[in-house]
Amino acid sequence: MPLDANFSDAPSSVCRAPPTVHLNGVTNAKFAGAFDRQCRIKIGCFEAEHEPRALFVFGDSYADTGNHSPYVPILNRPWKLPYGSTWPGEGFGRYSDGKIFTDFFVEYLGFPAAPMTARMAKGKKQYDDSMHGINFAYGGSGMFSTFGPLIDPVHLQIKQFSQMIESGFLSKDLIDESMILFVVCGNDYTAYGDKHPNDEGILDFVPSVASEIDWSLKAFQALGVKKISITKMLPYGCYPKITSKVNYISCNASENARTILHNKLITDYAERAIIATSFGGISLPWF
């Protein structure tokens, strides 16, 4: 069964145009085209009656739209320039000079705005559709503890989500009609490298991270979620912190080995989840 089985039959005529992507103030048509192919192939196109009612977001800084407090000095960097310099012109809680993956994703789905952050949702007495879902993602987060006690790992994000369902703040009907975006981009491996400068044992650590991701997928299913889009990991050996060692000339193949293993394992877990249940709603988009 294909990973995007429940999306693949939607007619191409209902696909939306890809979002306009600006990097350093310049429209990047190549990136926008890649995003379009990504969404069409892996996310698929939603027929109008099957579009998600809301989006619930989990993960790290690639998805966090403002959960770091602007009032805590050690956490408030994304609320200050140069973050937000190309969009919206000031620090806006995102670890980017402009939009992040969540912003592009919701544009593609046709949402008028990104989901409300969990930080802001805590002040709400009841959920309403103008919130477009809730973003629990937290910059620096991983499947395990990464960069200190102030950074919530993914399992605590899921716990917040579960508590909102149990309290009735989020209804079961809402969850049934909504979608999850799950973004995990390697903070566990960065934190591991901080403790093991030579990366000894890193390939033995990868299955532990993948297993936690598998646990998360099962937790979402147990909470009644019907659609999940989970990102694979970018080539770690092509990160600027790695390529800077060779003047950005080439990627590091040995560093990329963890990415290859990571992506294979989470793909296997997702396939098993689809085969083992009638769930059928997991897709695996690349950035």
Automatic annotation (TrEMBL):
<dbReference type="GO" id="GO:0016788">
    <property type="term" value="F:hydrolase activity, acting on ester bonds"/>
</dbReference>
<dbReference type="GO" id="GO:0006629">
    <property type="term" value="P:lipid metabolic process"/>
</dbReference>
<keyword id="KW-0443">Lipid metabolism</keyword>
<protein>
    <recommendedName>
        <fullName>GDSL esterase/lipase</fullName>
    </recommendedName>
</protein>
<comment type="similarity">
    <text>Belongs to the 'GDSL' lipolytic enzyme family.</text>
</comment>
<dbReference type="InterPro" id="IPR001087">
    <property type="entry name" value="GDSL"/>
</dbReference>
<dbReference type="InterPro" id="IPR036514">
    <property type="entry name" value="SGNH_hydro_sf"/>
</dbReference>
<keyword id="KW-0378">Hydrolase</keyword>
<dbReference type="Pfam" id="PF00657">
    <property type="entry name" value="Lipase_GDSL"/>
</dbReference>
